[in-house]
Amino acid sequence: MSLAKQIEEKLTTSFHPQFIDVQCESHLHNVPAGSEMHFRVVLVSEAFESIRKVQRHQKVYAVLADEMAGPIHALALHTYAPDEWEGDAPESPECQGGSKKG
Questions:
Q1: Is residue 78 part of a domain?
Q2: For position 47, which CATH number holds?
Q3: How far is 42 from 28, CA to CA, in rounded Å?
Q4: Position 24 in a domain
């Protein structure tokens, strides 16, 4: 199973989201081909109602503690309560590291 799918399954089990999108963005970075290290997660859940963004991210990090300690190098989180969700989230910026730096 891909790491993206593993992340999606863990977050789905923990947060019962109304919407979830997990994308591996490693191909946009200066990493070996086929790497799974950089991810973008959009997560809409009632679990995020009435809590600040930092607390939301802490909850996600807690669920993904094993992955954060190992294969995940970067995790872009876009967390929303259902009443905040407008159907889209910001795109990740272009990589500025390594050989991709302009």
A1: yes
A2: 3.30.300.90
A3: 18
A4: yes
| 96 found inside a domain | no
**Which residues make Cβ contacts (< 8 Å) with residue 7, sequence separation at least 6?**
22, 39, 41, 64, 67
**C-alpha to C-alpha distances, 11 to 5, 27, 30, 60, 82, nearest whole angstrom:** 10, 23, 27, 7, 16
- Interval 29-64: pLDDT, tens: 666 565 666 789 999 999 999 999 999 999 999 999
Dihedral sign for Cα 67, 70, 24, 56, please: positive
pTM of the predicted model over 0.90: no
The tokens describing 78, both together, are 């876009």
Distance (Å, whole) CA 8 – CA 22 = 6
Q: Decide if 99 is inside a domain.
A: no
Concatenating the DSSP letter of every residue in 36-85 gives --EEEEEEE-GGGTT--HHHHHHHHHHHTHHHHHTT-SEEEEEEE-TTT-
Nearest residue to 36 via CA among 77, 69, 74, 64: 74
